[in-house]
Amino acid sequence: MFPAPSTPIRMMTSRSITVGRDARQSVPHHPVRLEQNGLVVRRRYAEAPPRVEYELTGPGRGLIEPLSALGRWTERYADEVLDAREGAVSGR
What we know:
Blueprint: E1 14-19, E2 23-28, H1 31-36, E3 40-45, E4 51-56, H2 58-62, H3 64-90
Antiparallel strand pairs: 1-2, 3-4
Keywords: DNA-binding, Transcription, Transcription regulation
GO molecular function: DNA binding
Protein name: Transcriptional regulator
């Protein structure tokens, strides 16, 4: 799910994810905010084409397990949550 904590990565501006059955959405990445909050370190390279890498800091690495747990919870319960939401909306 995540790269190794000490492996620098190149971040895309957005990507599609699937939550539950059919819910597709574009999730923007905000590396500047992550950097401002001390979760990643940004490295620029003077190359053509330009290259920027981000690496997790200690606090960023500390989020891996809780976010992994949230991902596992989502995989397990997303369908139930979506069913409940659909039932609540259709019952209005």
